[in-house]
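Reproducibility note. Readers wishing to regenerate the assembly model reported in the main text can use the exact inputs given here. Chain order matters: entities are listed in the order in which they were concatenated for prediction.
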Amino acid sequence: MEVVLPFLEGRDMIKEAGGEVFRLCYQCGTCTGVCPWNRVSTLNIRKAMHEAALGVLDIESAQNWLCVTCNMCVERCPRGVKIIDFWRSLRRIMVDAQMVPVDLRRALSSISTDGNPYIGERKKRAEFSKTLGIRPFEPTMEYYLFLCCAAIYDPLTQCMAQTLVRVLNTAGVSFGAHPDSEVCCSESARKVGSEDMFQTAAAQNIENFKSSGAKKILVISPHCYWTFKNEYPELGGKFEVVHYTELLFELVSSGRLKPKAKKPIKVAYHDPCYLGRHSKIYEEPREVLRAAGYELVTMAEERDAALCCGGGAGRIWMDTKKGERFSDIRVNQAIDAGAEVLAVACPYCYANMADSIITEGKEGRLRSADISQLLIEAL
Amino acid sequence: MGDIGKEPRIGVFICHCGTNIAQLVDVEAVAEEAKKMPNVVFATAYKYVCSDPGQDIIKKAVKEQGLNRVVVAACSPRMHESTFRNTCQAAGLNPYLFEMANIREHNSWVHLDRKSATEKAVALVAAAVRKAYYLEPLERKEKEVVKSVLIVGGGIAGIQAALEIANSGFKVYLVEKQPSIGGHMIQLDKTFPTLDCSACILTPKMSDVGKHPNITLLTMSEVQSVEGSIGNFKVRIKRRARYVNEKECTACGECAKVCPATAPDEFNLGLSTRKAIYQPFPQAVPSSYLIKMDECYGFDACGKCYQACEKRCINFFAKDSFVDIEVGAIILATGYDLLDPSLLPQYGWGREINVLNSIEFERLLNASGPTGGKIIRLDNRNPVRSVAILHCIGSRDENYCKYCSRVCCMYALKFAHLIRERLGDEVEVYNFYIDLRCFGAGYEEFYKRISDEGVQFIRGKVARILSSKEAPKGLECEEGQLIVEAEDTLLGKVVRLAVDMVVLCPAIVPSDGTAQLAQIFKVQRRADGFFMERHPKLDPVSTLTDGIFICGCCQSPKDIPDTVAQASAAAARVLNYLSLGKVTIEPLISVVDEDVCTGCRVCNLVCPFSAITYDVGKNKSVIDEAVCKGCGICAATCPFGAIKNKQFTDAQIMAQIEGALK
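Running the prediction on these inputs yields the following structure tokens for the assembly.
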């Protein structure tokens, strides 16, 4: 039998990287029980906590890169262990030791050199903004529109930016941007341990917002939303952050937009982890869909129990094997609920769901669309 | 004994306290310094002043040196102030001509440098000596005590306390908001670890209460307001109308037979129905029936029960009434409720009919329950072949109740045993737990017994319960079954199995209405919502309000043995002063100088013990001596300086400051 000797330096290394949250864990196993990875693969969170406490955790294990930070375990943990900080600190150690998985490495260095994870040219940000007709931001404008890198560089999700801008113009919303000085919000970069890169990116974005005179930041991605709202303030950037579904809700409930769906289509709304569980916004997107005349069907595992699409913590940039994709399960859940459309509110969810519909062979039975697109279709 | 008029002659006694003080403080030097202080005629140091020989030294010095003030420099007054006051009294000196300087907790225990600690000790002694000069003799008063007790709550805790006090010859008013006493214990089937039938051990006590000449049982009643203080509380109680004459009803049941109106039976947690005119359960005390008027069709529309009742004890025109009583002490025994499991939707309670909470399952087990004691599925009444029992639902959880509910591990084991006993060896019982807390007498042995009976223990808190419709592909399960998902932490693998029934062990929370009661009685609650005890170890049945005591689950979750013990303890505390017929009032309180008081009432608002009221006729604030704790907040707040705190007068405080700073 293998005899274990606690390796306290290993434990201390994790502590110093910010992972000492393992101290509170009382090994109940709820985290492992709720983690979606255990439906398709193996991720024993509880065991990792105990191994970390004894300093015998295998820091190089591929398992350490699995967590997509969906927050399901944190929500249910009875001890309030900040499990996401745990994985983040392990990854930070690996990033500092320059031992990052290949596909992540590409995305991270792309953010570093080009300000986006898609290996796209930096100037494309401003070009895209121009093609959409987004005016340069003036302090008199109400919103600073910050487009997610996915909405700029990924052809699949560019439509989200296009439809949102159309809706905003239709409603006469005052908005602008200053994309030349923007870089990726870097929320996911921080989650995979690139702390320095995050700090640099945040400083640059904060400086851009401040010098532009921006007060309200309108975002497409819940990931940008979450980091601007929760992580930028302590770095000096305190702004009012609005997710586009919140603004759309305001527009339809105040009557500035009067949508009317032509025939009642069954729509299942998938709660994005960073909008739903992390930020507790569940009703506004649904209200927008209802106001637009869509018939909402209830999917299994919704609201605070929503199953992640699998895109967080940089996994959207990585390759996930077929059979291990959460979005495959999600797409089938939408179909089981009788939906014709799977509504999303996040570019990562959009990309993953669209992909899963194809690979699961459900084209024709289900299509995915984001809230602004569904709203346009009803106007 | 009163030494006003004579020049103060102060004696100072410095305690070594073994090495506690003497190791750091040069006590002999302090005694020498004390001799030089004004009005000090005697000063000495001794190893243990609180000991008998130590106290004798004080008494001897008082006599031989003609001392009329005593200062002891030693530990915290919380330790021995009362000891030394008694010493002074024994020496013939008024006990309030005594002052203590804390040179242990405030000095030798918190510092490291010998020189500074000794200097500080001298300063602390000087402060005490200077204050002693201004001390005045005070007299303890005695207040007559009304020799009756109010007990709120008629569960096992209230019943036990009531019997203890009534059997000692004192009058008890037992107020219970339900139509019968018995609380939750009467709902239980068997109790751990002895597997005694709960009703069999409780009903004799209930019957004793019902018959006891010293107990006035007020059911369907709630306390509306409380005034007064220890020894004399004035309480107003609201009695809800029963619509049936409690004394005359023979519980023959003819009325219920003909009643056309049905409603969910709350005694069975809604798992069965009852009539609008009903008896809560067969062994109810009082046994009288009652009518739930909002369920009744009405006298004009129906009135069948009235016709059926031979004794003519049904009165549709009864009204709620009020009862005013005066009591000398109050015991709160209001018990617990279970946390609402719908707050944890992942476990399916409320959505899935075969997910039950523990009291619902107790009723299922009980022969007088909704299924006649048969453990069957509630959807199709098929036999149950497998049960999962989930520990820690909402307990030990930062998101709900941070504390452990103490009794659930034991009753979960009890359930496991009873299920296998009733349904045989083929039934699979799974207990999903994090830890197994079997702490009491016979508890670990009970666990061993249940282990040996073939119960499956899976160490892992259940992540969620799925319905058969949501079962993952590949899992064998029948329609209507429930899927349990958890990590078996001892295997390090996720377990997923299908069962016929799930029993949840929800957290124990203070019973509904506890917050309002805390307001009415002006007792504190802890952060977890339960009533706050005066001291968790040394005084668990008293509250911070003199004369009001707590016992049972309203203080914290506990099992029946501990509840009964606490109830007897609370009764004993009450009998302390009820048997003497009087209570001693400490004179260290605040007093309003009526000549200065302008009736602004600011003090009324700041008193944390609600001891200050307002006399409308005189336009003056009045401090209730029996309630006042002498905290001095009112004295500090009064804008006119009309309130003086005895033993913390301005002159005394100024003298202390001067002594410490010189």
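We highlight two features of this model. The radius of gyration of chain B is 32 Å. Chain B touches chain A through 23 residues (CB under 8 Å).
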